[in-house]
Amino acid sequence: MSRRCELTGKTALVGHKVSHSNRKTKRRFLPNLVNVTLISDALGRSVRMRISANALKTVDHRGGLDAFLMKASDAELSAKALDLKKQVAKKAIAAAG
Asked: Cα(37)–Cα(43) distance, rounded to whole angstroms?
């Protein structure tokens, strides 16, 4: 399982650990990933995802998973999230028309 957020695309970054004597050694900054179950209102079912804590706050701020997916760009979403976005868009078109 990769250390990548399924919604925002956040991955591990590389930097230096700097000691008191200013020696630099490589280290990794890992995203704060959590396993969550999000509910899609349009699809009427729950979805398990591995997302960052920051993305979880953003999903809540935007008003749910469906609203987040509609506003997110396709480039940063994972394949699973992209498929979910297409399903939500299909349901929204069916409900409107």
From this structure: 14
Architecture of domain 13-96: Roll (2.30)
Are 6 and 85 contacting, i.e. CB atoms less than 8 angstroms apart? no
The whole-model pTM stands at 0.85
- Is residue 63 within 8 Å of 20, Cβ to Cβ? no
- In this predicted model, what pLDDT tens digit does every residue of 25-68 receive, in sequence order? 999 999 999 999 999 999 999 999 999 999 999 999 999 999 99
**DSSP per-residue string spanning the chain:** --S--TTT----EEEEEE-TT--EEEEEE---EEEEEEEETTTTEEEEEEEEHHHHHHHHHHTSHHHHHHHS-TTTS-HHHHHHHHHHHHHHHHHH-
